[in-house]
Amino acid sequence: MKTLLILILLSITSLVHAERQDSYFDKAKKNCDLNDDGGCFNLGLKYEYGIGITQNHFKAVESYKKACDLNNSFGCFNIGIMYEDAIGTTQNHFKAVESYKKACDLNNSFGCFNLGNIYSKGTGVKQDNFKAVELYQKACNLNDANGCNNLGFMYAKGIGIKKDKQQALKYYRKACDLKSELGCKGYAILKK
Q1: 129-173 confidence digits (pLDDT tens)
Q2: The pTM of the whole model exceeds 0.70
Q3: How many C-beta neighbours within 10 Å does residue 119 have?
Q4: CATH number for region 18-106
Q5: 101-106, long-range: CB within 8 Å, 24+ apart, which pairs?
Q6: Residue ranges per domain, the chain?
Q7: Helix, strand, coil percentages, rounded to 5, for the chain
Q8: CB-based contacts of 168: which residues, under 8 Å, 6+ apart?
């Protein structure tokens, strides 16, 4: 009897949860249809991860693109990832760069960091470590731990900027303060 009661409660709970997810999906879709950037971004998340709907990367791309067109920085960042990694679309480094640049211009630290990585590696663009340093600096200024860590590395090695141990320590320390394990390790190694 106790087991049956638990099963009934679990079934009811899962039905209520499913109804809520459907409701959240419907709300995101409605808001996106009304050109709400946050609604489009949330709709993209729901499609990308299959939240309240069947997972559909193609629809996620459409939703993130619309969010980005409406100046949602996270929509721009996410569509950049999808273009870079060929998720729901063909790989397109040019569009990834455009999307990350727009995200960065909208002060999205993740967009700045990813764009810095693209310039550092020369993926789909001419390698430009000076530009990478500039982008890592902006990401770090926006309190992105990875941006600070990479900036510390660039200073430590003199890549794209004059080698400067004090600046490297400063940025590794900031990365560490922002909870980057790599930043803490970089700081400890350079401090020796």
Answers
A1: 999 999 999 999 999 999 999 999 999 999 999 999 999 999 999
A2: yes
A3: 24
A4: 1.25.40.10
A5: 102/68, 102/73, 102/76, 103/68, 103/73, 103/74, 103/76, 103/77, 104/135, 104/138, 104/139, 106/71, 106/72, 106/73, 106/76
A6: 18-106, 118-192
A7: 75, 0, 25
A8: 152, 153, 155, 156, 186, 190
What is 118-192's CATH topology?
Answer: 1.25.40
> Cα(119)–Cα(98) distance, rounded to whole angstroms?
13
Structure tokens at 130: 């000076």
Domains 18-106 and 118-192 share a fold: yes
> Alpha-carbon distance 132 to 94, whole Å?
16
Phi-psi region of 124 (alpha: psi -120 to 50; beta: other; left: phi over 0): left
Evaluate whether 190 touches 169 at the Cβ level (below 8 Å). Answer: yes
- Cβ–Cβ < 8 Å for 157, 149: no
- Which pLDDT value is given to residue 167? 98
What are the helix (H) ranges across 106-162?
Answer: 109-121, 129-141, 145-157
Structure tokens at 184: 């803490």
